[in-house]
Records
---
Amino acid sequence: MALRAERVAVTGVGVVSALGASAERTFERLCAGESGIAALGAFDGTDRRSTLAAEVGSFDQSFVPRAEADRWSRSDRMAVAAALDALRAAGIADASRLSLAVGGTTGGMREAEEVLAAEPGCLPARAVERLLAYPLSTSLDRLTATLGARAHAATLCSACSSGANALLLAACWIASGRASQVLAGGTDALCRLTFSGFDALGVLSPEPCRPFDLSRKGLTLGEGAAFLMLESEASARARGVRVLAWLDGWSVGAEAHHITHPEPSGETAARLLGRALQRAGLAPVDVDYVNAHGTATVQNDAAEARALAIALGAELTRIRVSSSKGQLGHTLGAAGALEAAVTVLAVDRGLAPPTGGLVTPDPELGLSHVVGTAEPLAIRAALSSSFGFGGTGTVLAFTHSGRERSEVERAARAPRVRSVATLFEGSLATDAAVASAASPGARGSWLDHLEASRSRRFDSASAMVTFGASAVLRRCEGALSDVGLVAGSAYGNVERSVAFLRRVLQRGPRFASPADFPHLVPSAAAGNAGIYLGLRGPVLALADASTSAESALAVALALLDDGQAESIVAGSAEPRDEVVERLLAPLKRTGPAAGGARGEGASFVLVTRERSAGDVAVTFWSDAARSEELPAPTAPRALVGSPLDDASSELLEASAWRRVERRAPSVARVPPEAAGGFGVAQAIAWILSGEADETLWVSRRYAFVFSRGA
Amino acid sequence: MLRSAPVRHPVEHEDLKRSIKQLIVDELDLRDLGADDIEDDAPLFGGGLGLDSLDALQLAMAVEERFGVRLPEGEAARPAFASVAALAREVARMRPG
């Protein structure tokens, strides 16, 4: 059976960038050839290879409640300002039914880094407030609170393609009919950690960056936020709002090549370009403009040009290609969204923006550039591509509002669970054995299970994700090239970020560790595991506090449903982290004070589109569950798993599952952030072990129904 | 003109090579290797150790920190990083005193 895929309209864009505090102002100045790159102002630039950045100037922040001023990070503020700009442009007054998808890499790092690097006992002022804004998921929380939005929501990270993947996830939600209005984008504030890290890698240009130029010497960092208002065609028509462009095609996949180096052949990027075109029903002959990732590093621009040549063939000589990073800088987690916003306005206005800093095009690249100022160009279709550390790339295809599209169908098969695994204190449990309480195993590091030469610098989370994913992938029959990985984590690698920052702040920027830096991005564990295992489907990280595992599974199911992979490993890994213990313990309900040091835990679920004997069907899932939506239990032997907190109990009491036996998962000593993932895995394992034929896992806003042989 | 390397005691030079090897093992997280497994004249990069340019950056930073020297960057650094012996010669040349 196949269902019609909803078409995705862009009805508004919002931007906060170095070129202005609105999408209109940013695009106008971008087209005029102005640059937002200037001397670094946010912090001391002494003893660094570059002292340039594209920093955001003043912007309206009147939406920040006075009482919370200390708790809003710069990333949060830019995100809400850009979101409000997008809503104004789209003419949306009531945002209460919106869904939200946010991409980023640094979260509140800029505010938290001095606190994190401080020695115990000499915490700087407002330490607790600054730490509260630290987790990646706070920007989503601020958006939810400010806008009153309460539908689907996800915070994701895939390094420098994060913003593009937030848009891609939103498109998946809309195409499947799961959501009709999604505000999606990315935000990232400049901070010492990223500046020092890129500086240590030697990729910062000493002069303003020059994408595609013969003399390009590296990138210039920037900061900003951008959001796009995405709606189903039906929603846009019903509101009678003007469509700026259609988001008709998208694709995400991983190179499985290297944590920082792009695949020189450009093959994966070419495959993603091709798939985005195919999804949109486009051929190279239909494309008039490409907004490239174009970081201005020697390697990136060369690999990207090769990818464009493979994917677009002879048409590439006609197609205008530009990079916005010469004027807006590389805004990391925001870049994919910011450049998508630029692409949408380019399509809508019929203006191809220039590549700032480009003087002498590198003839080896064979691209057709826009130099100086924007060029009037009737754009029928445009591509925007993003790539990042860990190798996850994303391509979005936008088409002109006047373009018709033939109907796109999507498969309507219930996804299946092939295998589950939990990791706790040195012991691995798989499939039916997951149903038993987690018990500590042999002492030793998870790294002992991995090849030493291929797991250099892996932290505990990377090792857990790699080992746990390989355990569930033993049951995978297809090629790993079609497998993705979505790994959640509440805080990311705090311990190693702290060690990195201490070196920078105490010893000086020259002693920032280049090799450690790419392992600090929140998606490092997923990226490391994906490269180790050779996974070439979507490889992403998710952050949603104590329901990060549930968020990872919900996002994996959305990507699977959309056909972005044949199989995806979803889960979460929460390592033992002394810094998290020490700094965040006073803020949490559980911690060392509440029953001894906690352990470390991880859980994984392999979901796939293919049926197989003895597997489990996912018959319902939602990240914004309402009681009335939950399908009634159909099997006589059913069980409910839930942490039994107030929100979950309320949801259950008003549902058809209120009389079904409820069990709290066996999660003694499992870190609270990982408990939900163990709960999901156990709810599946109750079926695999024969205890039940149908199970429901409910926690906070997430609900999943699993069924034997449906 | 190029300054010739100061003549140092051979034992001291052996110690320097030994500490560089240990630094390589520790800083580049070569868990399946001991310092003794690295040959003085074997190529550090593009050879059997499986090291890449990211490792070169890390090693340069670590050597600068450990020995208080400032090494050349980019292409100019290539000869110094050819082998442990070459790196030891460069460090000895640059080291104050």
---
Amino acid sequence: MIPPGLTADLCLKCNICTASCPVAAATDLFPGPKAVGPQAERFRHPKLPSPDASVSWCSGCGTCTRVCPHGVNVAEINIVAKARLVQEHGAPLRDQAISRPHWLGALAGPFAAIANPVLRQRWARRAMGAVLRIHPDAPMPAFQRRTLRGRAKRHRVRSPRDISTSPETAVAFFHGCSAEYYEPGLGLLTLRLLEHLGLQPVIPPQTCCGLPLQSNGLFDAARAQARRNARSLAPFARAGIPIVGTSTSCTLALKHDYRAILGLEGPDFDEMAAGTYDIFEFLVYVRPDLLHQPDLRALPLRVLYHPPCQLRSHFIGTPAVQILSRIPGLEVVLSEAECCGVAGTYGLKSEKFPVARGVADSLLAQIEQVQPDLVLTDSETCRWWLAGLSGDRLVHPIEVLAASLGLVALPGGRN
Amino acid sequence: MPGPTMPDLVVIGAGLTGLFASYLAAAKGARVTLISFGRGGLSLSHGCIDARYPTAARSIPEALPHPIALAGADALRAGCAQLNNLLSAAGVGYVGSLDDSVETLTPLGGRRPTQFAPESLVIPTQLLDGRAAIAGILGFRDFMPALATRGWQGGGTAPACLDDLPWPGAPPRRDLYATDLARRFESRQQLASLCDLWRPLVAGIDCLGIPAVLGLTDHVRVKAELESSLGLRLFEIPTLPPSVPGLRLETALRRAALAAGVTLIEGARALGRLEGNRAKRRALGVRVETAGGTRAISADKTLLASGGILNGGLHTDHAGSVIEATFGAPVAAHATRAAWVGPALSGPHEYPHFGVRVNDRMQPLDAAGELFAEDLYAAGGLLAGVDRVRTTCRQGIDLATAYRAIEVMLA
């Protein structure tokens, strides 16, 4: 992979990225992706301090890279430049903490019965705001007492050799931190759905994808986790076992960020990237034979689907829409927002919250205007964020597919 | 739900041609996957539809047939009509006709004829009545009213050049882009205080030209409110990119295409025909480069709408070879690189003529004049037979050839 900085010279200054950037649209503190990216890159010398800190307003949503018609890796340039700032100035305790959702989940999970009610208290959030600078209004997920791995022991394998059935039916599930610590129910449902479709889902050894560390500029710690994942997951890819995830930002890290942003190289990373799929991408492009039209029950619902910015960076379109549009009676309205604003951990930070909230405005207005029965989005951080801001119940599109297959009751609608 | 007899289509490129073709095909019930490496170039466009096609053969100097001659005048008429229907349904408000022209003002003060233009860009008759002015906006460096008033070629007396009009509230912390201003104009609260601020500054003026920044989707309302509050006639003048009129056109087309059921894959580079394809005369869809790796998108028919030499559809090298960038279709071009450009910077040049030769079914031909691939079609800026820079029917070519291609592909 080309180091992102070397793509700066491809910039034609056409401003397509500037016109599409959701952060530049929300605040004039951010000069825009072209200005802090390919343009400012000329002033960044490896041996000299970063000339300007305005790139730190970039949320890392990746829109700029996706819309660039000339191959400039704008977002990647900016994420690397942000990490340089962290190297020079250090990361606050807050960023060290929120970039390790797996530690937080493992530490606080056993005390969920105490931690969750406390964290719902205004005084607790004010204290977190004062001490850690986590914005009191930023929605946060609830901890769960039991993890997915604890509840799905029979699916756990150490290597492809542990799989008894034919490799054609095996699927390796990358649950990420969210399904492991915060939404184990979603993970269990996904395993059930894959089994229902005739596959044998297994859970390989894995750790947090490292994306939150990367977004907070802690590249060395992120690389350590990336290497651990590559060591344990690459053998599955090599054995022809697809690695499937429901968290679109984790799967993007496996596919793209390890190589293109963290600069990791080697066959393990290439094979893991090529063998990793978003779950709907898997159902559309890898195994289109699994879903049969007669098995899909009608769902008379109007839903608004927001493809997370990080799903869009997979460059696979919106495969969830391709699947959901096959469900009789279901009307899918597409979100017109490039990003919901939170961009992982960006919106949690006190200084960034107002900007992230501004980015969310257009999507919240569309939800208000469409009045859907349900709002769907794949990424957990988008769901937590939008549920907190809108008061709606947010669901993963896989829950709607599972409902149409008769695996679960219809998720609850608007409040 | 696509009908059982409808083909699966892949369209490559999301500029005017690709978005319009995708919309047409999906609206007729085809399953369409639109693949776009980056966002299409409409944000670089003035947003007008130039479609003056010289019907007399002698006025077309190119040796190869003109794309509209191949697509047919009926396709031009039908394509323009379809686009206008789409735009009026979207509330974007275009005016004009194929048989006549309307005029917009260039940022340099010239009159520019076109066939269909956003109503807000058309020069009002009041402009030459003496109490007209052109103004920029403070903090916006991409428009200079003096360029238009000093270089005036619009006939009559040049309008007055006003000082840049201020924006209410704190000054911006960076240079504003046209898109920033457009979003600010759409805020009802800001618009009210802006009117109070501007009213004394434009007193006595009947007709005011300002940069084209009056909102990204809600500009018809914004313009009407400004006109009634300020008591004058307003019109917009195109600016440097990002061009708001171009973005309005893109938004309307994109919304219509997605609402018709088009699957848009943005960011993926199209690499070529499907692998393992023994039948060399078929593309069978396209391979694309995604974040994880190469994926195959199979299709019954594939439309190339990837643009001309300035837009990514053609690949050139330093040795002077020119080839179609995705499937490697041959390109009508000068083999010697020195012949690509003429002596004067402003042209004419040879390179804007380069393009793929197609038949009257919009199918690329090989060097021998045979079909390059049975299931491959091409439309828009990629086509040979016209100087893309100097033509008076650039968007007309895009619409006519897209219309014709989809007509044939769905037949």
